[in-house]
Amino acid sequence: MARIAGIILMMMMISPVNAETLRVISLYPGHSDNISAMGGNLVALSENDDDDLLPELPRISLRSGAERILSLKPDVIITRPFAERINPNMYDVLRRSGVKVISIDPPKWDDFPAYLVTLAESLNLNPINGISRLNSALEGLESPSAKSPRVFLEATSREIHTCAPDSWPARLISLAGGVNVADDAKPLRNGSTIAPYGVERVLRNAESIDVYIIQTGAMNPATINTFKAREWSSALSHARVCEIPEKYISRPSLLGLEKGIKILRQIFTEDSENAR
């Protein structure tokens, strides 16, 4: 992806940028992160956005009426198809009122550079800002080595689901220098980012797991303490058990990428030091 991002960056160097500033409301946290990272003019966020991201801005419920949004005088609403299906009537009213509605699914890893360009150009932002930041985040990262920690990511504690091998979190683990123990996991369905794994398979691989990461957030309410209360957790007593917020490991965003890799590298470095 870094090579693709570099090619896109060179192509954009000769592309004109529309300087008109648009008032943007984002109704999906991943889009909000990326718009903020690229310097967009956000005037409101969804109620699901992180509290620490532009806390001064109003929060909008996905089930709000169109009047609430129109009162903020947006030029563009950026959302995702899932959110649009929750409240289709609101979006119909917004479109009839002349507000531009852009609905984009969260991108897969390989599509992320192109997604940043599409997002930026749709909002009259300079795509170079996003691609340059992406290249900076990926610069100098090394591939896993023979001494790299072997990692299992718990995406959900219910029946133990992990990340699909080609998913965003799997790529972050690799970029940060880890090896995904569950690289044989099969996605829940075509295109899904999570994969069923189960306790029995975890236990069969227990001796080879150096780091057990619990993704915490809406998808998984588990914690280190609840993990230790599981009957089978003693089989992983040799492994380091860590928590990472979902927004830093699974959300396709520049902010999540930067923070997620930093957290993972700290965990893996500590694991290497402890192994000496």
Mean pLDDT: 90
Question: What is the rounded distance between the termini?
Answer: 33 Å
Percent strand equals 15-25%
Number of strands: 11
Helicity level: 25-40%
Per the CATH scheme, the topology name of the largest domain is Rossmann fold
Figure out the total of helices: 12
Which term fits the overall shape?
globular
CATH class call of the largest domain: Alpha Beta
Provide the gyration radius in Å: 20 Å
Strand order of the largest sheet: 3-2-1-4-5
Integer count of domains: 2
Spell the H/E element sequence: HEHEEHEHHEHHEEHEEHEHEHH
Task: Write the SSE topology.
Blueprint lengths: L1 H11 L11 E3 L2 H9 L4 E5 L12 E2 L5 H5 L5 E4 L1 H6 L1 H9 L3 E4 L8 H11 L4 H12 L11 E5 L6 E3 L4 H8 L3 E2 L13 E3 L2 H6 L6 E6 L7 H5 L11 E6 H4 L4 H22 L1
Parallel strand pairs: 1-2, 1-4, 2-3, 4-5, 6-8, 6-10, 10-11
Antiparallel strand pairs: 7-9
Helix pairs in contact: 1-7, 6-7, 7-12
